[in-house]
Specification:
The chain has ten helices and nine strands. By secondary structure, the protein is α+β, with helices and mostly antiparallel strands. The protein has two domains: 2-142, Sandwich (Jelly Rolls); 157-255, Arc Repressor Mutant, subunit A (Orthogonal Bundle). Strands 1-2-8-3-6-9 form a six-stranded antiparallel sheet. It has a three-stranded antiparallel sheet with strand order 5-4-7, with helices on one face. The longest helix has 19 residues, at 199-217. This is Helix-turn-helix transcriptional regulator.
Length: 256
């Protein structure tokens, strides 16, 4: 779908995505990602983090390093549209697309996707007309943009917020429960019901995953990684890493 105004490059769907995205990746075009099932996290190189649940969206900007991924096994389902062109650059110049508002909530995701397919992708009309219709649909999405998510105890987002907070190396389970305004024992029980493991184990697992990523992608010394991940010393880090991966950090780095 080409036009002097721009084009839709690709429209597709991913089911049971397991993530695995590099931190961070860069696209050469815009992309709108709609979460249709599951829970996850969005983060970018500007330090923004968002908890994501079904009905939320992420707008990827061409030059902004970003990462988004599901939180638990089973992944999530997503619908995406990649697009580019002068008309969308003009949107940015006019402030309709802002680097500070790259996520939000759509709500009726299924209805919006149905309209996109019927009015734009499968429509029997000219390319420029279809592109204009897409712009109208994109405007509806951006009306639901937000600058910051607030932790919510009720509804699906509390678990995504909990996972995001527990993914930080310095996280403390009691502090996360307090931030979500939940009694510690209630939080621990509810988290285990959703994740299949207690929050302290989830936290340690995420910290080890981050450490493994640093071992794979950087030349940081094991002692520096241990400090960055909040371990008291390198032997403590090495012991915990071996418990979760079956290998010492040095062995893991050689293999990967």
């Amino acid at each position: 779908m080409r036009s002097p105004l721009g084009q839709l490059v690709e429209v597709g769907e991913v089911r049971a995505s397991q993530g695995g995205m590099a931190r961070f990746r860069y696209l050469q075009r815009y992309a709108l990602v709609l979460i249709t099932r599951g829970e996850g996290i969005y983060e970018d190189e500007n330090g923004r983090e968002r908890s994501l649940v079904a009905g939320d969206w992420v707008l990827v900007l061409p030059e902004l390093g970003h990462s988004y991924r599901p939180l638990v096994s089973g992944g999530w389902d997503e619908f995406y549209i990649m697009f580019e062109g002068p008309v969308f650059d003009l949107w940015r110049e006019e402030g309709l697309i802002e680097v500070g508002r790259v996520s939000g909530r759509l709500g009726d995701t299924a209805g919006w996707i149905e309209r996109l397919l019927g009015e734009v992708v499968d429509a029997d009309t000219g390319t420029s007309t279809r592109l204009c219709r897409f712009q109208a649909l994109l405007a509806e999405v951006l009306e639901g943009s937000v600058e910051n998510w607030t932790p919510v105890v009720d509804g699906p987002r509390w678990f995504a917020d909990a996972c995001r907070l527990l993914s930080q190396p310095e996280a403390k389970v009691q502090a996360v429960a307090a931030e979500l305004d939940l009694p510690y024992e209630t939080f621990r029980r509810r988290f285990r019901q959703h994740a299949g493991m207690p929050p302290h184990r989830y936290h340690r697992q995420q910290v080890i995953n981050r450490a493994a990523h640093l071992l794979e992608t950087t030349q940081m010394k094991s002692a520096d990684i241990a400090e960055a991940m909040g371990f008291c010393d390198e032997p403590h880090f090495s012991h915990a890493f071996r418990q979760y991966t079956g290998r010492a950090p040095s062995e893991y780095r050689k293999r990967h």
